[in-house]
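Board notes (copied after class):
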Amino acid sequence: MAPTDPRPFAAVDLGASSGRVMVGRVAAGTLDLTEVHRFPNTPVRVGSTLHWDILALYRGVLEGLQAAGRFAGGPPASVGIDSWAVDYGLLDADGALIGNPVHYRDGRTGSATAKVAGTLPPTALYAVTGLQHLPFNTVYQLVAAQGTPALAAARRLLMIPDLVSYWLTGEVGTELTNASTTQLIDPRTRDWSRPVADTLGIDLSLFAPLRRPGDRAGQLLPEVLTETGLGGPVPVTAVGSHDTASAVVGVPAHGDRFAYIATGTWSLAGLELDAPVLTEDSRRANFTNELGVDGTVRYLRNIMGLWLLQECLRAWESQGRTYELDELLRRAAESAPLRSVVDAGDPEFIAPGRMPERITEACRRTGQPVPRDEAETTRCVLDSLALAHRRALMDAQRLSGRTVDAVHIVGGGARNELLCRLTADACGLPVVAGPAEAAALGNVLVQARTAGAVAGDLSDLRRLLCETQDLRRHEPMGDRRAWERAEARIADGRDSHRHSEGDKDEQPRG
C-alpha cells in the first residue's frame, strides 16, 4: 500500500430502493466509509408503464456530492458511480434524454422472451453470452422496444450509471461490468458479440465505447461544480459500475476458496472465477457469467432476495399494519423452522404486489402449511432464502469445479443476523457477515487504486478490508438433514409446477 495520508473519495451507490453518496478515506492501513447523503428511489407508474424517476435520482446525486464536499472539507479526489444492472436511458441526436428509463420490473418484455428464443435458441445464446435467463435482461428490453418511436429516435444508449456519469461530465462510455448484464457481451473476449446483436436486429452503434474499471471517465462539468459547490477539477473514475461487481471487490476474503452472497433487494450468490462456465449444464442450472474487476468473472445465480420481505412489509403497511423489523425478526426467530418454504428463485415473485398472498398460494399449491401470521411469513421468507443460497452455492461448486471453505455475506442482508445464521446452517459452512456497504467500499477502492492512494491486486484490496472492517462470523449449527428434506420439498414443488405448465426448458429456473 502506498504511504500517503488518507484521501477522500466519493462513491455514488444507486440501489433499487434508495441511493446514497458515501465518502471513503483511504491510505495505507486506513479505510473508513461515511454515508453523507441518502435519498429514496421510488419508481413511478405512468399509464401502464413503470419508470425510474431518473431526474430525482440525479438530484439526489448532486445533493450528495455537495454533502461530500462539506464532509471532506473540500472536493473529493475522485467520484465513482455504481447502480443496478440491465436498465438504460436513450439519448437523441442532441444528447437529450428520450423519456424516463423503464423499470426492469415493468411487464413489457413478456412477449420478447419468446421472440428472442424463436430467433436465437437459448442454448446458442448462452453458449456465446453465458448470461442467466431473466426476462428483464437488456436484450429482451431492446427487442421489446423495437419499432417504438423512442428507439427509432435514439442515437445513444447509456446504462444507468453511465447516464449519470454523462450528465456529470459530458462524456459518454459504457462500463464493462454493467455492459456484461445486457446479454450482448461475450465473456471470453470481454467485448460485444456482434453475431448475437446482428441476429436479433440490435444496433451496437447505440452503445458508447467500452470502459474498464479504473479508466478515467472525465471530470465534473463547470455547471456541476457550481451546483455542488465543489472546487475543481474533480475527476470521475469508472469503477465496477454494476453494484454487484463493486460489492464483490468489497468482499473481505482471504485467498480464492470463498463464495459470496451480495444481499439486498436481490441475492447474488456465487463464486469469483478466472474464466466463464458456458456449459449446457450451467445454462440449465440458470447461472450467469457477469464480468468483474481485474479480468474476473462473477459466476452467480440471481435469487429474489430481500425483495420478498420488502414487498411483504409494504403490503402489511398498506393494510395499516406497521411492524418494526427488529421485532418481526425476533418473532420469526422464535417461529418453527422450515415449517413451510417456497422457491425464492421462482419468476412468479418478480412483480410487485400481494406478496404475502402469493407466498401463501405457493405454500398451498405445494401442500405445505400456510403461514398463520406475519412472523411465520417472515420465517418462511428467510428459510426459503437460506435454502436458495444453499442450492446456488452447491450448484456453483459442482459446475465450476471450485470448492469453498467459507461464505461471505455482504450488502444489506449482512445486518440480518437471522438470515446469516440460517444461511450458515443451510450451507453447512461458516458465514462471514459484512461489510454491509460492500458496493460503496469496492467503488472507493477502485477509485483509490487508480489515484495511487493504494496499490496492488484484488487480494491486496481485500486485505485492507479484513484489517479495517467489522465482521461477524457464524458457524453452522443444527441438523443438516432438515435442510435436505426442505430442499426436497422445493424440488418436488418445482417439478409439479413445471409439469402442470408443460415443458419450460427455454426458461430454466434457478
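Comment from the instructor: The first strand starts at residue 7 and ends at 14. The radius of gyration is 22 Å.
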